[in-house]
Amino acid sequence: MALQGSGFWEQCLQIISARINAQSYRTWFEQTWELKYDDDAVVIAVKNQFVADWLSSNYTQLIVDIAYQVAGKEIGIKLAIPRNGGYEEILLDVHSSNDSAPSKEVGTLNPRYTFENFVVGDFNSLAHYSAMAVADNPGGTKYNPLYIHGGVGLGKTHLLHAIGHQIKQTKPDLKVIAVTSERFIDLYITSIINKTTSRFNEVYRSADVLLVDDIQFFSGKEGIQNAFFHIFNALHHRGQQIVLTSDMPPAKIAGLEERLRSRFEWGLMVDMQQPNYEGRMAILRQKAESDGIEIPDEVLSLIAQSVTSNIRELEGTLIRLLATASIYGREIDEKLALDVIGQYGRPILSLSEKITLEDILKIVSQHIGVSPELLRGKRRTKQVALARQIAMYLARKYTGSSLQHIGNFFGRRDHSTVVHACKIIPQKDGEVQRIVSQIESELDRRTGK
Ligand code: ADP
Ligand code: MG
Known about the structure:
alpha/beta; five-stranded parallel sheet; four-stranded mixed sheet; 9 strands; 12% strand; globular; binds adenosine-5'-diphosphate; binds magnesium ion
């Protein structure tokens, strides 16, 4: 297949081909190509209506998930079907592909989201511990409801589904219902239109374990909250397990009725935090291992240093790294990692941060493409030496570290070397000047200037 467009869809295809069997891939994906891609939407051409229908009814979730991972955010996905010399576009949407019978909800757990695949560290150990306890003894602990909250991409959905898997496996007689709040809302509205609300209520009340993801979306929706209130009471009263996730604690959800808020706080509330560097390394190692791919530790470390926002971003970066390596036949090394990290935006900067020598090391390494090891090493090739001088100059300007300390940090050099760097870098022009001011404006942003 010819490489077209931005390469975005090609990256998705690489991953899809690894996920589904070869026959299905050939049949449904091989003759798809990217028609258009911009920052928030991709249009994928398919051969005919039939392929479009098949893809949308069988592969929507997969395509949406993978596009999300590759793009690092939610984007619109359209299929384009050739028609009268042009294309007719249809939107691929997780909600539109399913019919709306509530019973369909039973058993839509992501197969990858298991306890086995879940890395535990300080940042999530409490949430993990309580999820395990609930999965071992649903309805039988004080953790009812279990309320898991935390920022995006930190593993809430993963943990919620892991509970579902575990219970299904060890207690197959129990009826586990997993639903996102958005889906719950859609189905509730549909049931009102179809006059089937009693059936709707019945389904959810029949659960032994009810897992509801992202309940913050109930905010401000009184009818839904009322419906959920009664389902919650019925289940809780019978000692059935309820697990809820949200991006914030109940008290912080605006437009949540008092009676629901207090019920959400009845059991146990646990939060999930951002992983620290060690946690990020552990996650990257686990992902690489489970994909059966060997990636040098320096490469993983580079990603763990640059991508600090959340675990989804971390995964996305790793996937882009692998996709780029396989599409362009490149070796998985630090250079590739820097390219991939650089290409998809700089690490998120928090405001008013204090700049450290490590920060300078990282930022110079990313902008110039010389590895941190080289910057701190002895080598004196022209490019490395220049990059090191830039780093020293910026370190002096931004960190308040002593000349001695800076010299020592960058390859055990004398303080006079730092003085020299500080003198000559401001005198450079052209490309050097451009890079330096680019880094400076980023550092200024970081320190809140
Ligand atoms: P949230 O629901 O909090 O936004 P998700 O559960 O969707 O986050 O997690 C985002 C991605 O990160 C998923 O692909 C998930 O498998 C992965 N992930 C999150 N936490 C972990 C973890 N502790 N170990 C391994 N993978 C994780
Ligand atoms: Mg989630």
